[in-house]
Amino acid sequence: MAGAEPLVDAAASGAIGLDDGFPNGQLRIYGLIGDPVSQVRAPSPMTQRLRQAGLNAALVPLHVPAVVLPVAFGGLKLIRNLDGLVITVPHKIPMAELVDRSSERARLVGAINVARREADGSWSGDILDGVGFVRGLMDRGFDPKGQSAFVVGAGGAGSAVAVELVLAGASVRVFDVSATRAHALAQRLQQANYAIESAETADPSGAALVVNATPLGMRQDDPLPLDPTLLSPEMMVAEVVMKPPVTPFLQQAKARGCRIQLGEAVMLYQLDAQVAFFREGLLRKASAAH
Prior knowledge:
This protein has 290 residues and is of the alpha/beta class.
């Protein structure tokens, strides 16, 4: 594309358009796609991180109905100043099939939550939810290495958390109301020689870390993901649900003396990783342009 080289080079160096007002015509766009997106909190803090990294860029929420995702992604790829996407429910799994390549982490999870345009126009994906989750634990003084973890939920969020925990050296048991889904996740990671097994019941006894990686807790009438009487004070109990900030499950855990991690940690602690992922794409474009 004529004139693309100087623009990409400047974008990678963090120099473009920062003195010309914000937003401006040189703005690089990152879209946050989901169905819905009204609940997402990432656009403001992510845009701030992009700006702090010296990038003239913003994260914009885009409500993409699930039934039109392939068509919508095809259209988004045509937007020349769209450099990447942040992906939320329910698009994480199907988007893994739509990008051209995924990281090893994403292949283990079977889903992606970030995607970027590469220098050759192809799209690459990764999953950073688990990265944010584990960074949050580490910041609270809980190192998963050598610890046992019990994860409720083997969907996109549960898979991301389980994968990152085994990568960090934890042994994981995963439970899901769909035993088939929990078994499939465990089998996939076992084949990659990671310490994980599926659980037949939602009993976290013996675990140092207990994680609700299901949507249960978003609605007032949701049941708890497991019986809170099975929790003990030495456990760290964590959520992936961000609203409400302190879910009924976390309230029960606190009442039993457990340390807790809020669901917002998944988002807040992965922002820097997302910026690094997108910035790497810009740097690769700049390198290819020379």
